Amino acid sequence: MTAVVPNVESRDHPHHHHGWWWKTLLAGLGLWVITIVVTAVTGNNNLVPTLILLGSFLVPFCVVLFAIERVTGSISTLQLILAFFVGGIFGVLGASLLEADLHESFWVYGLVGLIEEFVKVVLLVIFGWRTVPKTAKQGALLGATIGAGFAAFESAGYAFNAAITSRGIDLVSLLETELVRAILAPVGHVMWTAILGAVIFGAAGGGRRFRWSWWILLAYACVSLLHAAWDSAADIASFFAVLFTGDALQQLQNGALQQSTANQVEALAMLLYVIGLAFVSAVGIVTLGLVLRHYRRVERDAGAEAVEPRAEEAAPPLT
Description:
There is one protein chain. Helix 9 crosses helix 11. Helices cover 74% and strands 1% of the residues. The chain is globular and about 70 Å long. The protein is an all-alpha fold.
């Protein structure tokens, strides 16, 4: 009697393609705006934690809903939600412990990128250990979920620091921080961990166990470099803004910038910063697309090779 192996890859979840991610995004955005208005009108600082939670978690949680609607196989909704919350918490805790003794320097950005991406790789392997089948798409979705959790808790910390000042609660600074980080969240931690997940799971070839590949090390180095470039973009933009703005460099050597020169440097630095982030984001998007396309082709070819022998066995003998 031949055992029948269930095809977990083709098993759909009942919540697929309902568009909950964008519906939640719109509803959450409305709640965030209402909370801003009520907080500003009433001056009730008790609403600040609500603002921080809504602004920091809305976009990352919508990433989780996006993943939930597209997973197949053995990844469950509960597994993704746990990966988001537990992975996010352990991610920021682990990164904080490993980064505690780092000293300020230009090279610290590279070390931070290596540390945070390593922490997320460990979490990705732990949460994906029992995932079947291990395909690039599954890995990208699980990686994006863990990256979203990391981004959410990290953004909450940044929002809190922006809100607390010596003059009390700075609501404008809080909202600016949340808005910028919410817009950039999908092309930051989410993107980098999705790339790693796609490569790590893709190397498993659709099997049940992880397999080592030198492509994993290359992907780790690549996303760490993207991470470092992202974090250092502001400093690099400021350096080139001073370099390219008239006699700004000479003024700095003499003591300080004149106000008009400082305004020019600040405007150019902001422009270069936006261009830098856009470039890093584009590289990440293209990289993820190429990785998914490569492993999709590999998985398709492997499936075709597996079908051919079965077709030959099923063919009747020639007489």
